[in-house]
Amino acid sequence: MKRVIVSIPLFLFIAFFCFAQASLPRGYGGIELGMTLDEVKEKLKKNSEFGYHGDRDVSLLPGENRVLIETDAEAGHVISFLERCYFQFYNEKLYIIIINVNRERMDHYSIFSTLCEKYGDPTLFSPEKAEWKTDSVTMTLERPLALKYVDNNVFNEVNAASLVPLSGTEITREIFLDEL
Fold first, then answer.
1. Which of 12, 99, 129, 154 satisfies CB 3.0 to 4.6 Å to 142 for a cystine?
2. DSSP 140-174
3. DSSP helix/strand/coil, 66
4. First and final CA of the chain: distance in angstroms?
């Protein structure tokens, strides 16, 4: 009976540790997916590592309700591991973060091994990228050296909204191919 009592807390501790290790970050440097445009601007102003210069770094993207903030840490004359960073919004909410890392100060292997240690093996691995994915977040380490965080729900919503219906010719082509 004592073994069962000792085993249950030990099992719960191990399960909690494994679950905590599997959850992916939703961003970097205090900036997280789902934040509003104003919240991100405030966080960028407080964190010089990104090289944010104010509203001149903000631009509108083609399409409705799409905004992009592009920062340049190197132009800000700050000693940073970052280079250019991109923060993409849809309906005033941050849904993509792309962080280009300075290859003179950091290497791909160090980031990759740290991510594997923290979050386990990637769900997808190729020469171009390593990807960790949960239902809500995809975190990607891309070559040469960029980290990408994506809110999967918003990304899927944007993709679904941007799909163009097939033309008559494309539909007929599909029907022909299906009949083969």
1. 129
2. EEETTTEEEEEEHHHHHHHHHHHPPPPPHHHHHHH
3. strand
4. 66
**Bridge-partner residues for 146, per DSSP?**
100, 142
CB atoms within 10 A of CB 48: 14
Mean pLDDT of the chain: 84
Strands in the chain per DSSP E: 27-28, 31-32, 58-60, 66-72, 82-90, 93-101, 124-125, 129-133, 137-142, 146-151
- Checking if the pLDDT of 162 tops 60, the result is yes
Q: How many CB atoms are located within 10 Å of the residue 130 CB? A: 21
SS3 at position 113: helix
- Mean pLDDT in residue range 73-89: 85
Per-residue confidence band for 59, with pLDDT thresholds at 50, 70 and 90: confident
Q: Which two tokens stand for residue 74?
A: 């190197």
Split at pLDDT 50, 70, 90, the class of 169 is confident
Encoded tokens for 71:
């920062």
Q: Which residue has the higher pLDDT, 108 or 58?
A: 108
CA nearest to 22, candidates 109, 92, 86, 118: 118
Give me the pLDDT at residue 31, please.
97
> Cβ–Cβ contacts within 10 Å for residue 21, how many?
11
